[in-house]
Write a structure and sequence with these properties.
By secondary structure, the protein is of the alpha/beta class. About 35% of the residues lie in helices and about 25% in strands.
Length: about 160
């Protein structure tokens, strides 16, 4: 009887492990500089996003990540790490947290929707991106709030 119990428990732990790793947290792969043009921003604005620049950046991030990792891998896992963006005439690095089972573009709220702009971690409230800074729903600066940082020429490795 004990032997059967052991086999059952071992099988049960394998099933539990399989469920636990269905969505893994992984480091954001290096995607190079993601360029977002004025056209990309205009298209996202026409599609009704609250923050067209953020939505355009998320779409470009998805495109590069899917090209590198494949859509199934990118969609199913949580990726966290720095991403370099170039918006028209400026560049910035933002720590992105992509939630499991979603594309980044799906985390960008559309105008008039009640969806949260936060991504991953079960955060509440929304945020918006303006001038390379991220602001919370109360208007407080959350990222990129320090002084001016002079950046030299950006070169892809």
């Amino acid at each position: 009887m004990k032997r059967k119990s052991r086999v059952f428990l071992a099988g049960g732990s394998l099933v539990i492990s399989g469920i636990a790793i269905a969505c893994a947290m992984k480091a954001m792969p290096y995607l190079g500089l993601i360029e977002v043009s004025a056209w990309n921003i205009a298209v996202a604005g026409a599609q009704g996003y609250q923050n067209p620049a953020r939505a355009a950046a998320m779409k470009k991030l998805d495109e590069k990540a899917v090209e590198l990792l494949g859509e199934a891998e990118w969609r199913s896992n949580n990726y966290l790490g720095p991403v370099s963006y170039k918006f028209v005439n400026s560049a910035t690095i933002v720590t992105e947290d992509k939630p499991c089972n979603k594309l980044m573009k799906e985390t960008a709220p559309k105008s008039g929707s009640n969806t949260s702009g936060s991504s991953g971690g079960g955060g509440s409230g929304s945020y918006y991106w303006s001038g390379g800074r991220v602001y919370g729903s109360g208007g407080s600066c959350l990222y990129g709030c320090g002084g001016t940082v002079t950046v030299g020429e950006l070169k892809e490795a």
